[in-house]
């Protein structure tokens, strides 16, 4: 633990250095004739260890730097970047960005976000928790995780355990005078196992992802979870083609929310490449369902006080009682659409899907299985069969057939298909079994009907 204080001190010094560099480059860009400029600079460090069958497969130490500069000459924009922070490289990056801007066409939507929207309040979001783990300790932890999983009868092999510790420092600054500093840590543990032999072979995994290593599930628990998931897939079979209700497990359900975010994001909208074009203010989900953005959650995976353009983040509804409350916009896409930025340049910040159903009751996973009754539980999806333009959804899937609210047998080699518009409107319940490992905080989602294609 003695390394945590020095790591924290180094991080503050590095942030000051990045901020000073960013401000200096912006001054030089203005001196070179740029009407506006912005800089994003970062330093990412990490340790990544992989262990398989008790032996060390890889050990990787990383320290990556990034420096990106955008200059504006009126409505002409030029961008350049480098991974080298020495003065000559920075100057070359500045010269290149200015040269590019002089040859680009004017874009009426180009420019910094509005100065009045810049963040001015920077509360501590509890995102910085350096993990004082050295290589030897990470290897030992990986072995313990793998040993816990391999100890289960029926586990035939391992694809390995992973231990990853990471720290990220970033500064965004622009010629409005805004300088925003962020630092955060992300750590993860994972294990992938194999059960059965030959054609009966099945593979599955589990992982944990946290801001603070103190929040990890235990090595034994992670190994047990990975083994239980893998063994549960043995003797999987296909299904005859049918229509039935489908329950998406939490780690898969958040993908459905991700498709929603993609469809209501500015880039898809101004290109008119979304099935939810012109749907703001319209009902797209059941009237009991709420989805809220919460950028300031302590230790949240997507928490931040400002977006990628310095715009202050704030709590905001995305879906309110089934109605699409707004789009997801940065300043460029907002200008293209004649709207205002929603503080989402660079992406969404912590979406929370409220658990519930038409009857007002929130259910845990067992309760969601009872709501499903007889139908398909999906625990894995494969392929890229999602068309955001039309909303068509068709993906390979695996999971479990459920009868009378209880798992009957594992299922594989099937395809699930529907249209996202119908899937969102047909949500019967959202679970209280929220998966905390993502910036999309979502429990399982029960959809009333999909086509399941198998044998």
UniProtKB/TrEMBL annotation:
<feature type="domain" description="Metalloprotease TldD/E N-terminal">
    <location>
        <begin position="37"/>
        <end position="101"/>
    </location>
</feature>
<protein>
    <submittedName>
        <fullName>Metalloprotease PmbA</fullName>
        <ecNumber>3.4.24.-</ecNumber>
    </submittedName>
</protein>
<dbReference type="Pfam" id="PF19289">
    <property type="entry name" value="PmbA_TldD_3rd"/>
</dbReference>
<keyword id="KW-0482">Metalloprotease</keyword>
<comment type="similarity">
    <text>Belongs to the peptidase U62 family.</text>
</comment>
<dbReference type="InterPro" id="IPR045569">
    <property type="entry name" value="Metalloprtase-TldD/E_C"/>
</dbReference>
<dbReference type="Pfam" id="PF19290">
    <property type="entry name" value="PmbA_TldD_2nd"/>
</dbReference>
<dbReference type="InterPro" id="IPR036059">
    <property type="entry name" value="TldD/PmbA_sf"/>
</dbReference>
<feature type="domain" description="Metalloprotease TldD/E central">
    <location>
        <begin position="129"/>
        <end position="234"/>
    </location>
</feature>
<dbReference type="InterPro" id="IPR047657">
    <property type="entry name" value="PmbA"/>
</dbReference>
<dbReference type="InterPro" id="IPR035068">
    <property type="entry name" value="TldD/PmbA_N"/>
</dbReference>
<keyword id="KW-0645">Protease</keyword>
<dbReference type="InterPro" id="IPR045570">
    <property type="entry name" value="Metalloprtase-TldD/E_cen_dom"/>
</dbReference>
<dbReference type="InterPro" id="IPR002510">
    <property type="entry name" value="Metalloprtase-TldD/E_N"/>
</dbReference>
<dbReference type="Pfam" id="PF01523">
    <property type="entry name" value="PmbA_TldD_1st"/>
</dbReference>
<feature type="domain" description="Metalloprotease TldD/E C-terminal">
    <location>
        <begin position="241"/>
        <end position="454"/>
    </location>
</feature>
<keyword id="KW-0378">Hydrolase</keyword>
<dbReference type="GO" id="GO:0008237">
    <property type="term" value="F:metallopeptidase activity"/>
</dbReference>
């Amino acid at each position: 633990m003695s390394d945590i204080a020095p790591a924290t001190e180094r991080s503050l010094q590095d942030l000051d250095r990045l901020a000073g560099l960013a401000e200096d480059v912006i001054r030089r860009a203005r001196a070179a004739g740029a009407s506006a400029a912005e800089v994003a600079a970062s330093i990412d460090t990490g340790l990544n260890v992989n262990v398989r069958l008790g032996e060390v497969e890889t050990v990787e130490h990383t320290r990556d730097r990034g420096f990106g500069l955008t200059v504006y000459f009126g409505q002409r924009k030029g961008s350049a970047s480098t991974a080298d922070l020495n003065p000559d490289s920075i100057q070359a990056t500045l010269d290149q960005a200015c040269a590019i801007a002089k040859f680009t066409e004017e874009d009426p939507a180009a420019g910094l976000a509005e100065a009045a929207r810049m963040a001015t309040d920077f509360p501590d979001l509890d995102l910085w928790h350096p993990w004082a783990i050295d290589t030897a300790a990470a290897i030992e932890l990986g072995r313990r995780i793998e040993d816990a999983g391999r100890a289960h009868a029926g586990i035939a092999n391992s694809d390995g355990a992973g231990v990853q510790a990471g720290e990220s420092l970033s500064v965004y600054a622009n010629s409005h005078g805004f300088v925003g500093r962020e630092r955060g840590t992300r750590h993860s543990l994972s294990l992938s196992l194999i059960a059965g032999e030959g054609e009966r072979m099945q593979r599955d995994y589990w992982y944990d992802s946290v801001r603070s290593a103190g929040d990890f599930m235990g090595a034994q628990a992670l190994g047990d979870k990975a083994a239980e998931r893998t063994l549960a897939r043995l003797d999987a079979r296909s299904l005859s083609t049918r229509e039935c209700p489908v329950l998406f497990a939490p780690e898969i359900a958040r993908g459905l929310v991700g498709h929603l975010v993609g469809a209501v994001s500015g880039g898809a909208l101004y290109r008119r490449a979304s099935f939810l074009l012109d749907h703001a203010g319209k009902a797209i989900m059941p009237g009991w369902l709420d989805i809220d953005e919460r950028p300031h959650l302590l230790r949240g995976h997507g928490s931040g006080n400002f977006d990628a353009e310095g715009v202050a983040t704030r709590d905001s509804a995305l879906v309110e009682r089934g109605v699409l409350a707004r789009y997801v916009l940065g300043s460029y896409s907002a200008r293209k659409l004649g709207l205002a930025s929603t503080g989402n340049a660079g992406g969404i910040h912590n979406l929370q899907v409220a658990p519930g159903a038409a009857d007002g009751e929130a259910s845990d996973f067992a309760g969601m299985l009872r709501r499903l009754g007889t139908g398909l539980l999906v625990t894995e999806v494969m392929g890229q069969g999602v068309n955001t333009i039309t909303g068509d959804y068709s993906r390979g899937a695996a999971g479990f057939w459920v009868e009378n609210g209880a798992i009957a047998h594992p299922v594989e080699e099937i395809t699930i298909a529907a249209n996202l518009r119908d899937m969102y409107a047909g949500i019967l319940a959202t679970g209280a079994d929220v998966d905390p490992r993502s910036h999309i905080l979502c429990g399982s989602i029960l959809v009333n009907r999909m086509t399941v294609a198998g044998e």
